[in-house]
Amino acid sequence: MKNFRKATSSDANVIAQLLMFSMEDITYDFIGLKDGDKAKQFLSELISQENNQYSYENAWIYEIDGKIAGTCIVYDGSLLYELRKPVLNLLLTKFNRKINPQDETEPGEIYIDNVAIFPEFRGKGIGTEIFQFIIEEYADKKNQTIGLLVDLNKPRAQKLYESLGFKVIGEKQLMSENHYHMQLKK
């Protein structure tokens, strides 16, 4: 049985593990170290707390037969600065890192910050199901514009997003990676 549910703080470690599949390099850029354990711990701490961009409050869990298969982080782009402050504060206090990441989203869009799926569940259409759920939940039900970034070097991902109705509206850089900024409008 397949199921979507809002995440809880007790999901933090599993979500952190998932996010490392999709944002490992960016997390290393954030903390200034190529250390998987410290990067996962950094993410887990943020996920378990409220009011930040990686908080469990912004996460959906996708389960199959009661087992977590994937997750997505989704939030209102107009809240980026507010949600990013705790991330930057944790980087400063735990890693003595002061970074100034570029704006990955903007007001007027619900931003898909991340979608991640465990390797054993990949290739089964789960990514598409997660995106269809987000589209239904935000664009169809609430008539909101949805935005995301896709790495310029991932044309297969871009094709998937285009097949779901997303269109390239520009380019953005996030940390050391260049991306297309895509939106879906209903």
What topology does this entry show?
Elements: E1 2-6, H1 12-31, H2 36-48, E2 59-64, E3 67-76, H3 80-95, E4 110-117, H4 126-142, E5 146-151, H5 155-163, E6 167-174, E7 177-184
Helix pairs in contact: 1-2
Could you explain the architecture of this structure?
The chain has 186 residues and is α+β, with helices and mostly antiparallel strands. It has 5 helices and 7 strands. A hairpin with a 2-residue loop joins strand 6 and strand 7. The radius of gyration is 16 Å and the shape is globular.
The second-level CATH architecture is 3-Layer(aba) Sandwich
Helix content: 40-55%
Span from first to last CA?
29 Å
State mean pLDDT (0 to 100 scale): 94
Poorly predicted sequence stretches spanning 5 or more consecutive residues = none
Biggest sheet, spatial arrangement of strands: 1-2-3-4-5-7-6
Strand content: 25-35%
Q: What would you call the structural class? A: alpha+beta
Number of helices: 5
CATH class: Alpha Beta
How many structural domains in the coordinates?
1
Instruction: Name the CATH superfamily classification.
Output: Gcn5-related N-acetyltransferase (GNAT)
> What overall geometry do the principal axes of the alpha carbons give?
globular
Give a short account of the largest sheet.
7 strands, mixed
- Quick one: how many beta strands? 7
Order of helices and strands: EHHEEHEHEHEE
Q: Which value, in Å, is the CA radius of gyration?
A: 16 Å
Multimeric status of the protein: single chain
Write down the CATH topology. Answer: Aminopeptidase
